[in-house]
Design a protein that fits this description.
The complex is a heterodimer of chains A (about 140) and B (about 800). Chain A is mostly helical and about 140 residues long. Chain A has seven helices and no strands. Chain B starts with a helix and ends with a helix. Classes of the chains: A mainly alpha (about 140), B alpha+beta (about 800). Chains A and B meet through helix 2, helix 3 and helix 5 of A and strand 27 of B.
């Protein structure tokens, strides 16, 4: 029940990101070095995400990743899209990648929350719990 | 029915007939009877023939309709390069942009107004891009302006750049094994410039819109012209007949075939509109040959000869193509420019005679050059090794027949700029090394793979030193022992056990003999036959010592190293003998690239991908090959190994690279050399790219090259051409830096003469102080470390 509630909350949070134009509350602000073109592609991705066009959102993010392959926020966003697409394993991998590229506490916490959510949805409550703890340790 | 009546009459006459009259009449009646029998026979034969002809005509009719209404041609899958992305700040010079535009067949004009043109002015380059259906939708024709500063795009403006990013369309560079070797790119009639149609009608069939498939007037005129000139100048076939001949019939020249052709032409005209027939003709027509690939249809013909879509052709180009129909080999403008030019001019004159164009336009057109694409012919065969890689990846997901017939559009990751620089490097280095080492000319072979580190996208691939030659693709097929390239797996397996091994562990580097049941003893030697006693693990990796590496691998366990290799992405089955620890496993350069891709992307396995997306013939997305990653190595040990691979370049076997690359690029790599110098390898990464290079001989004879003296120089030439964006290294949370005395592997301080700041998994760093260190200075050393850390890892 708890898990279901948590899932629901995360889903709401995630869908919340969709309605807010930028930046979504779930994620940290963009890293300062993100170039204008990458910010624009992120906005495109947000728009597609908001209208549930997940394939287009992923394409825009992959396009941005070709420009800034080490932008942790882009990897996080792609992970969000994969959660929506029910590609939970990839979501976990992408969020983990994001974590290896950032020191930003908010983004790390967001990544861990996303990982927790993906584990919870894919039937791994223990791993979800561990990830939630890491999220709490990581920051706000 | 009427034909039967005489027979009845004669029977009545037979019954009624009387003596003399009968006799008198018998001779004539016999004659008449014979005539009648003959007539009957003839009429029966005629009836049968008529029936047969009717049946045959019906059969032809069905044939005509069936093929015309079904899918008319198998269209092979067409393969495209990556599109060039344009945005402010990206590395790009004006020259490179212009080259890309030229390759795409854009015309340089004074004022860019039409799609497919560009203008170079004082403030930058104006471009009007063509409409193009990408995997994420249609990009309409649009215009923008680019300016440049210091090798980058300084500004991007204009209607097409409202989003701050715009891409040029990708370039078609190959097709997948066309059926019957026929390749074509279909066009609709409305995409065909009127000039082309007029030119075609002028020389091939001026009465096309008036006749019923056959043109007696045209035939008579052709006959007359041919007789009076004493040679075959004109053919009498209509476009419809030509279409029937090419589309339905064999190439034999018999009367029967000619008759069939005429009947079918008439039937085709009966069923279909002129425009439908014309459109089919435009797509069917044969226009030349390149290798074993036949160029069919004006759509592909235009791309092949002019590098431009058909609708952009100007009058002289349209006349040239239309003129080629008569004899594509004879009038091949690439081989016989003068002949093709004369033919074109004749077409233009004929067009003027018939009033399609005025005399002035014809004259102007005859004065222009042929306008052939500079690289049309080579481009058609370009990058065969990469195309081969694409084909192999496609075969996993598509049936061969679909690839050859369904007209799929395959968008790949091939970056022609990088591909070309790799080809140049490979060719130049292979030649210069051969000369310097006095190797027999043409024996040294090369393979190279370049990928993007974080996504696994393969951007360039070379399968031999003659990259235009489609043959043995060494990058994918040459399985060679990898030698020391395997060592990172041994060290990583050790570093994953921080309680036992760190970069500062001391290893025993002395002669070693491993006895194995059932096989001869294994005695690995060091490359220089020297043994260093106790060496730092980091040094053993950087200098690629064999004996100490073998000991380390044995301590960790050969099976553990083998399992790790599989995790890193080696799928091939191999035996886990101790000799595996020093690279006694045969891998292709692509497999090596897959293994190193995992290391280069921070421990995430990324499948190496050539394909981005596949669209169907009607431009619907069929398949995407999305970014997919899999974390297989924890960040901590990965960071330690990364440090070790950078040490290879800082002070180890690849230190010669320091002269070519700045230290802050943090080049990481590994050399590989096999027994008797048969194979020379280098695998390494810098900036956003990973590259793997192999050098050796196909007959496996020694080439006398180590990894550092051979493959590494090619690697450096390749990587020097790449663009670099700064990459801030980031130490994982569980890793700390500690200064170590390299001699003892213990904590050093400022009193130690040589000191190395090394990463350790927290809690695994040595605690004992080095003999050179003074006990009280440890805190100071930490302060200095912090500064070092700030300098290297936290700068903006």
């Amino acid at each position: 029940m708890k898990t279901a509630l948590a899932s629901l909350l995360v889903v709401l949070a995630l869908s919340g990101c969709a309605t807010v134009s930028y930046p979504p509350p779930e994620t940290a602000p963009p890293s300062p070095q993100a170039s204008p073109v990458v910010l624009q592609l992120m906005r495109d991705a947000d728009q597609a995400y908001a209208s549930s066009n997940h394939a287009a959102a992923a394409l825009a993010l992959e396009r941005a990743l070709r420009i800034e392959p080490r932008n942790a926020l882009l990897w996080h966003r792609l992970a969000q899209v994969r959660v929506r697409q029910q590609r939970l394993h990839q979501a976990i991998q992408l969020a983990s990648k994001s974590n290896t590229l950032t020191r930003d506490a908010r983004l790390r916490a967001a990544n861990w929350r996303l990982i927790a959510e993906a584990y919870a949805r894919s039937g791994h409550p223990d791993k979800a719990e561990t990830a939630r703890k890491k999220a709490a340790q990581a920051g706000p | 029915m009427t034909k039967v009546r005489p027979r009845t009459t004669s029977r009545k006459q037979k019954r009624k007939g009387t003596g003399p009259r009968r006799r008198r009449r018998s001779a004539s009646s016999r004659k008449r009877g014979r005539r009648q029998t003959a007539r009957r026979l003839i009429s029966r034969v005629a009836a049968v023939l008529a029936l047969a002809m009717l049946a045959y005509t019906v059969y032809l009719d069905v044939t005509v309709r069936q093929r015309f209404e079904g899918q008319r041609w198998p269209i092979p899958a067409h393969v495209y390069t990556r599109p060039l992305e344009l945005y402010e700040g990206r590395h790009l010079t004006r020259e490179r942009l212009v080259r890309e535009l030229t390759e795409l067949g854009y015309r340089r004009v004074d004022r860019a107004e039409h799609a497919g043109t560009y203008a170079v002015g004082g403030r930058g380059v104006d471009v009007v891009v063509r409409p193009f259906v990408f995997w994420d939708g249609l990009r309409p024709a649009t215009s923008f302006t680019l300016s440049f500063r210091d090798g980058r795009v300084a500004a991007l403006s204009g209607a097409g750049a409202a989003n701050g990013i715009v891409r040029l369309e990708p370039r078609l560079f190959g097709s997948i094994s066309p059926i019957h070797h026929e390749d074509r790119d279909l066009v609709r009639l409305d995409q065909v410039p009127p000039h082309l149609i007029n030119a075609l009608l002028a020389v091939e069939d001026r009465n096309f819109y008036d006749h019923m498939g056959l043109d007696p007037r045209g035939l008579a005129r052709a006959l007359w012209v041919n007789v009076t000139s004493g040679r075959v100048v004109q053919g009498g076939s209509t476009l419809t007949q030509q279409l029937v001949k090419n589309f339905y019939l064999s190439k034999e020249r018999t009367f029967r075939r000619k008759l069939t052709e005429m009947v079918m032409a008439a039937l085709l005209e009966l069923h279909y509109e002129k425009d439908e027939i014309l459109e089919a003709y435009l797509n069917e027509v044969y226009l030349g040959q390149t290798g074993n690939r036949a160029i069919h249809g004006f759509g592909l013909g235009s791309l092949f000869y002019f590098g431009r879509p058909l609708h952009e052709l100007q009058l002289p180009e349209a006349a040239l193509l239309a003129g080629m129909v008569k004899g594509p080999s004879h009038y091949n403008p690439l081989r016989f420019p003068q002949r093709a030019r004369e033919r074109r001019d004749l077409v233009l004159r004929r067009m003027a005679e018939l009033g399609f164009i005025d005399a002035q336009a014809a004259r102007r057109a005859t004065e222009s050059g042929l306008g052939l694409s500079q690289q049309s012919a080579p481009a058609a065969r370009a990058y065969p090794a990469y195309a081969d890689f694409v084909r192999r990846q496609l075969r996993r997901d598509y049936r061969e027949n679909d690839l050859r017939s369904e007209g799929l559009r395959i968008f790949t990751n091939l970056d022609p700029d990088i591909q070309r620089s790799v080809e140049r490097a490979v060719r130049a280095r292979a030649t210069s090394i051969e000369r310097a080492r006095e190797l027999p000319r043409g024996t040294l072979e090369v393979a190279a793979v370049v990928t993007r580190r974080d996504s696994g996208e393969v951007v360039a691939l070379v399968g031999g030193r003659e990259p235009r030659f489609a043959g043995f693709n060494r990058a994918l097929e040459a399985r060679r022992p990898v030698g020391s390239l395997i060592k990172p797996a041994v060290y990583l397996a050790a570093l994953q056990r921080p309680a036992r091994f760190t970069l500062a562990s001391l290893l025993e580097d002395s002669p070693l003999r491993v006895t194995q049941a059932g096989s001869p003893d294994w005695e690995p030697n060091n490359y220089d036959r020297q043994y260093r006693g106790r060496v730092l693990l980091l040094r053993s990796l950087a200098d690629s010592y064999n004996a100490s590496t073998a000991r380390l691998g044995m301590a960790v366990g050969v099976d553990k190293v083998a399992a790790l290799l599989r995790k890193l992405g080696i799928r091939r089955k191999f035996a886990a003998y101790p000799s595996l620890l020093l690279g006694a496993v045969d891998l292709t350069p692509l497999e090596v690239a897959q293994m190193y891709a995992t290391l280069a992307s921070g421990g995430f396995r990324v499948p190496l991908r050539s394909i981005r997306s596949v669209l169907s013939r009607d431009e619907q997305p069929l398949a995407r090959y999305p970014l997919a990653i899999e974390q297989v190595i924890e960040p901590g040990p990965m960071a330690l190994l990364d440090f070790g691979l950078q040490e290879v370049v800082r002070s180890g076997t690849a230190r010669a690279l320091r002269q070519r690359f700045p230290d802050d690029l943090r080049v990481a790599g590994k050399t590989g050399t096999t027994d008797d110098f048969r194979d020379s390898w280098f695998a390494g990464y810098a900036g956003d790219h990973l590259a793997v290079v192999w050098l050796g001989r196909d007959d496996n004879k020694p080439v006398g090259l180590s990894g550092a003296s051979g493959a590494m120089s090619v690697w450096a030439d390749i990587v020097a051409q790449l663009e670099f964006e700064p990459r801030d290294p980031l130490l994982p949370e569980d890793v700390e830096l500690v200064a170590v005395d390299p001699a003892s592997g213990r904590v050093a301080d400022e009193f130690c003469e040589s000191r190395l700041d090394m990463p350790f998994i927290k809690g695994s760093a040595p605690t004992e102080r080095a003999p050179c260190a003074a006990p009280r200075v440890v805190t100071k050393a930490r302060g200095k470390l912090r500064n070092w850390f700030k300098r290297w890892f936290l700068r903006p």
